[in-house]
């Protein structure tokens, strides 16, 4: 068994780069931009709908808007549509709240055969748990900074 020399490694790397698949980075960025933008546009439409037809204020229309986006995302995940959209759009579907709902619903669907408690309940937060954890820690740190700025500098947000 021989160990490849540095020259052979470099030659192979050059060969692999020459014959490897070219990734269309700008195309992927465009898909992510369009998908994320469309999700946000739908969210804005829902918010205006709740303000117009249900007499919500701008502040109170956010909660039902997010709830509808989460519900639709979970339904689309359940029937397999969201995963196809995510393959096309990449990060554009992962960033909004719909991506978070998709990650939780996907985990729940994957482990449903193991039962509600040991399957769905214990595994649903595997992927989303880190997002929740870092979100809470980040919010705590930002709240401390906000309080310190208010007390010592007089800046109020």
Structure notes:
The chain has 157 residues and is mostly helical. The chain has a domain at 26-98. It is built from 8 helices and no strands. It has helices at residues 6-19, 25-54, 62-78, 81-89, 91-94, 97-110, 116-123, 125-153. Helix 3 packs parallel to helix 6 and helix 6 runs antiparallel to helix 8 (125-153). The longest helix is centred in the N-terminal third of the chain and has 30 residues, at 25-54. The relative contact order is 0.07. The model has no long low-confidence stretch (mean pLDDT 89).
* Low confidence ranges: none
The count of helical stretches stands at: 8
Q: Give the H and E element order.
A: HHHHHHHH
What is the approximate shape? extended
Total number of strands: 0
Q: State mean pLDDT (0 to 100 scale).
A: 89
**What radius of gyration results from the CA coordinates?**
23 Å
Major β-sheet profile:
none
Structural class: mainly alpha
Strand content: under 5%
Distance separating the two termini: 66 Å
